[in-house]
Amino acid sequence: MGYELKIIDAAGQAKILQDAGEKTPYLKARGGHFSNNPDLHWAIDEGTGSYLFWSPRPLMDSRYFYYFFRGGRMYSLMMDSESSAIVRALDWKSDFLSKELRDSVCAAFAVHGTFGVAEDGGLKVIFKGEGEE
To answer: Is the full-model pTM beyond 0.85?
Structure first.
C-alpha cells in the first residue's frame, strides 16, 4: 500500500496517544501537541500500521524532532536541519541496524517531508546510525 499524507483526525490522535506509551506526557504537555495543530499531518501506511509525524520542539532548540511508529514500537527521531537531511534515532538505536526499518523511515519522510504539509513535497533523508558519520 505505501505511505500517504493524511490529516491526523481525532481517531488518529487517539491511536498515537495509545501507541506513544512513555512518550504520551510529552505529547500532552503545553496544552497538547494536537490541540494547537488542527492541520497536523502524518505519513501513514495503513497496510503495516506504520506512521511518521512531526514532534513538538523543545523550547530554544533548532533541531527537528519526529515520532515514527512501526511494529508496536514508537521511535523518537531527530534531524539537525532540513538542509542536512540526516536523520538519527534517539532511542532503540540497535533496532536501526535493520535495513527494512531504515528504508521504512526514509519512505515515510519521502511522503511526509519536514513538517507534514502538502507543499513540502516530501524529503529525501539519509539515516545515520549510532557511530556513523
So the answer is: yes
